[in-house]
Amino acid sequence: MNMNKRPRISLDLLKGFEAAARHMSFTLAAKELCVTQSAVSRQVKLLEEQTGQTLFLRVNRGLLLTSAGQTLFSAVGQANALVYDAIDALVDDPHTPSLLVAAATPFATMVIAPSLHGFLAHSEVRNVRIQSSNEPAELERIAAHVQIRHFAPGAAPSGAVCLAHDRVLPVCAPALLTMPVRPLIKASDLENQVLLRYETVVEGRVKIDWMRWLQANDLAGLRPRGAVSFSHYDQVISAAVAGCGIAMGRLPLVQRLLSDGQLVAPFGDCGIETGAWYALVIQEPRMADQQRAFLTWLKSVLAQRPLNLPAEPRRLRGAKGA
After folding, report:
1. Which of 73, 80, 85, 160 could be disulfide-bonded to 278 (CB atoms 3.0-4.6 Å)?
2. How many Cα neighbours within 13 Å face the side chain of 96?
3. Angle 11-23/26-33 helices, nearest 10 degrees?
């Protein structure tokens, strides 16, 4: 490519794009950057004009990254990581290096971040860095001391440490159980509810998290009253906590919210297993004690099963017979 013809992209445009892609929302990006929503929208539009690529698709009043958008978002994330690594190298004490943990974004947001104070309070580890991404390939590029990822059954690499099995089941805010107009008592009552869906694009095909559970419980033909789709799982759960509808909860990601009553499982533990969460640990002798301490703590957090769920899962039977 002729260097003289390459567009000079403003870093401000990339900053607005990165925030919008991370939140999948111009509004939330604007709040983070302390600008107006229209300003972020203009930045993205100008960036699309300068690159000649469509970066976002506007669907269901939300956003989805295009293939070009995913490529740019990944590149910007890697560039940011390099900058942060350089800054950390300048300010870190070389005698007490930081423990770098890379984790899938939902796991980092919903499991590690809310409980990390317990690890810091009872561990000799003082410096921890958490990096997260929704893209497995991006996580692999991070030279983390501990990497936490989800793997389908049988897909985990040799040497991976199993942390917890991943199961999915419907969850909602407690208030939805007491609504007199649309009660939520049996599985067929989902027809009267709004389903909050985690929607991803894999190899050009849209995948929706509800489908596997509905099929496993003979509910594939269920038609809900409405549906709201999100491209980030933590947004799905935030909407569920706010009472917007029923979400497909993932244990152990939602177990803290179930334990403290922000969410309930209306049909009990009717979960189906979808794989497990694993830790991949690089061999670095000077970090071995910190790695071991972190994994011991994390396993203890994941072992705290919500008290309001029975020990054994049960299976529902059909929308009409449930």
Report:
1. 160
2. 7
3. 120
